[in-house]
Specification:
alpha/beta, five-stranded parallel beta sheet, elongated
Length: 251
């Protein structure tokens, strides 16, 4: 998996890329991340990347030429062509994009070669989006000051999909949203916390019973916290027989 990032603040990524699962994936060579400073693609003495907005108003807008030059250098194919996998998929981080979810994360992971454009200020000159961007992605309906944290969110989510990044393949398989439902609750030592014991079945050694309990608890968590997920036909389709029984029993 190869990821490139275009930003005016590459230093924001340092500890993130050196730590935990992402850090280990990079060390093992199954994830490669290259940071590019947008200012390296400017051509003026001041290496400027912003200017006043046409039409007036406050704030500054990032100028198009450095972005276009950078993208054409790092991902050199004309825009809007069918991607044949031979060049990076160019993703603009933007609150106006499609909201990131598990399906989108997996789709991006399958592309295998990504270039993230991280904006700042009031955003980037619109002509960047219309000429050298394949897709706009948002991490939620709120506005941040830059695309760097959103890019890190996507990098971390996507890297979990690479085989070998999360140690037990199982722990990804059961993660929330993987099956369409939320994850079941987790318990570890000590056996009693604040007077609350661990559910007995988890210490029974009966693996079939544990599996059924987890399936039911995943369903229960979803009903209680995210009932909207159970309105989706693709989620209902994937319920296990145990979960169908439990759902009927709840009425
Ligand atoms: N005026 C713009 C927001 C600019 S915020 C608008 O309202 O659409 C500056 C930069 O932060 C953006 O260019 C984008 O790269 C990033 N950004 C802010 N919020 C984001 C979000 N929710 N998801 C992804 N990127 C975001």
């Amino acid at each position: 998996m190869r990821v490139q990032v275009l930003t005016i603040f590459p230093e924001l990524f340092g500890p993130f890329l050196a730590t935990s699962l992402v850090g280990r994936a990079i060390e093992k060579g199954i994830l490669e991340v290259r940071l590019h400073d947008l200012r390296d693609f400017t051509e003026d003495r001041h290496r400027s990347v912003d200017d006043e907005p046409y039409g007036g108003g406050g704030g500054m807008v990032m100028t198009a030429p450095p972005w276009i030059r950078a993208v054409r250098t790092l991902a050199p194919v004309e825009p809007k062509d069918e991607t044949d996998g031979s060049r990076p998929w160019r993703v603009l981080m933007s609150p106006q994009g499609a909201r990131l979810d598990e399906a989108k994360v997996r789709e991006l992971a399958e592309r295998g070669d990504l270039l993230f454009l991280c904006g700042r200020y009031e955003g980037i000159d619109e002509r960047v989006r219309t000429t050298v961007v394949d897709e706009e992605i948002s991490i939620g309906d709120y506005v941040l000051s830059g695309g760097e944290l959103p890019a890190m969110v996507v990098i971390e989510a996507v890297s979990r999909q690479i085989p070998g990044v999360v140690k037990l393949a199982d722990s990804v398989e059961q993660d929330s949203f993987r099956t369409g439902l939320l994850d079941h609750p987790h318990f570890t030592r000590p056996p009693v916390v604040e007077g609350i014991p661990v559910p007995e079945v988890l210490t029974s050694g009966d693996h079939a019973a544990i599996r059924r309990w987890r399936e039911r608890e995943a369903l229960r968590a979803t009903v209680e916290k995210r009932p909207d997920l159970l309105e989706r036909p693709d989620v209902l389709e994937r319920l296990t027989p145990e979960q169908r029984r439990a759902l009927r029993a709840r009425g």
